[in-house]
Design a protein that fits this description.
about 425 residues; mainly alpha; about 0% strand; globular
């Protein structure tokens, strides 16, 4: 009880949040000025923010500040998260090089009846994004197919592209190897399979309604693909291995390494790449994860100093004023994730930044770790799937030669995902947390 009292009596300091404010001003400001939110590397803005954090609080010596950030960056969850990022990159690189993405897309399209073409794009997008763990990769792989279906059927291209983006965000939120899932699970301290089950139940109604919506919008269309939809089932097997292995609770490192080995075997056996290139294709995938790995470490350093100076406590005090019980805490976590993502235009970065605050809230108000992890991932994905300056929508719009604004009216899944999550928060009975 005394610990509770002491917690409430601690006063936070708003000025401690200055480094985060500096990052947001630089990142958003350059995005607005240049019109491209991905022209300015986020890592540069974060490094400047870290420099500002070091200049603050002269009562703490430089040596002590180094110890604080070393402890923050060396946290078990941060190190584990970074290693998982790299393993996920190795898998993604090898499975892509082996032709797994193309085979999976073609397998789905080859069995789709015409009236389900656009709804099927959403379903295929769901499967591929869950398997690949990357929404941007899914958008890049499927948008050309969406453009072709639009040409064949006469459906508005924005509808077809919207279905792809919606499917991509489904897997971005749920995939076992998605960097958002990894970040959410590690910052909240829960198992991936538990987070997946909790998360899946929340978003399933939204996914089912989305299928119905796209079917009703396009049920009168017909098409015939002129290109043969050839596929090799063995190239899909690594995806299935990762998905099933993660669901049954096999250690994530074993799952990712096993999936990578399977992809290498399939790639070499099918002639997708020679044996001499196995390390190169792995390396390409790992390098694709460098940015988010380094960003995670730098953010951990910033957050450790901000927390030491009283910034985290300040945010918690503000959020607590609007929180009444567990439901209020869950709404606070949801709102925090959404706002940070809208500001950063990167749902993984948003989770890494908001995670420590969400953890404090969930611990204090008895929110289960798997539930707080799900809410972080869901609402950061809600924001990421709808903002016109996000990588997903920008990629899709560029490939389809559309404006992101044209696609936005058909992004029904992120909206339904938010509605479903709010429904679960407000109306579902919260289970008591074991003491």
């Amino acid at each position: 009880m005394s610990n509770e009292v002491n917690k409430t009596e601690i006063k936070g300091k708003a000025i401690a949040l200055l480094p985060i404010g500096i990052f947001l001003v630089l990142f958003l400001g350059m995005g607005i000025v240049t019109g491209d939110f991905y022209k300015t590397p986020a890592i540069v803005c974060f490094l400047i923010a870290l420099f500002v954090a070091f200049l603050q609080n002269r009562k703490v010596s430089f040596g002590d500040k180094m110890k604080i950030i070393a402890k923050g960056a060396g946290d078990e969850n941060i190190i584990t998260m970074c290693l998982i990022f790299l393993c996920a990159g190795a898998f993604s690189g090898t499975v892509s090089a082996s032709g797994g993405v193309e085979s999976t897309v073609n397998l789905g399209l080859s069995v789709l009846p015409a009236p389900f073409a656009v709804a099927g794009l959403f379903v295929i997008g769901c499967f591929i994004s869950v398997s690949m763990g990357t929404s941007v990769g899914t958008v890049a792989a499927l948008t050309p197919i969406a453009v072709e279906i639009s040409h064949k059927t006469g459906f508005d291209m924005a509808i077809c592209v919207g279905a792809v983006v919606c499917g991509a965000m489904f897997g971005d939120n749920l995939s076992m190897i998605s960097d958002t899932t990894i970040a959410a699970v590690k910052t909240q301290g829960c198992d991936m399979k538990d987070k997946f089950k909790e998360n899946f139940l929340i978003v399933l109604p939204a996914a089912l309604i989305t299928v119905v919506v796209f079917f009703l919008l396009t049920r009168n269309g017909s098409f015939a693909l002129t290109d043969s939809m050839t596929y090799n089932f063995w190239k899909v097997v690594p995806y299935l291995f990762v998905l099933v292995g993660a669901l049954i609770g096999i250690n994530v490192f074993i799952v990712l390494i096993g999936g990578t080995v399977l992809s290498l075997i399939v790639g070499v056996a099918t002639g997708a790449f020679p044996l001499s290139d196995i390390f190169a294709v792995m390396g390409d995938g790992v390098m694709g994860m460098y940015d988010i790995t380094v960003i995670s470490i730098i953010v951990a350093c910033i957050v450790s100093l901000v927390k030491e100076y009283g910034g985290i406590q300040f945010v918690l005090n503000i959020i607590r004023k609007g929180i009444k019980g567990k439901r209020g805490a869950e709404l606070g976590i949801a709102g925090l994730a959404l706002v940070v993502d809208v500001c950063t235009a990167n749902n993984t970065v948003a989770i890494v930044m908001a995670g420590p605050i969400a953890k404090e809230i969930s611990d204090e108000y008895g929110v289960e770790p798997k539930r707080s992890a799900s809410l972080l991932d869901i609402f950061s994905s809600v924001g990421q799937g709808m903002i016109p300056y996000g990588a997903q929508l920008l990629t899709a719009a560029t490939i389809a030669s559309l404006s992101p604004v044209e696609v936005m009216p058909y992004l029904c899944y992120p909206v339904l995902m938010a509605v479903s999550a709010l429904f679960f928060i407000l109306l579902r009975k919260n289970k008591a947390v074991d003491s």
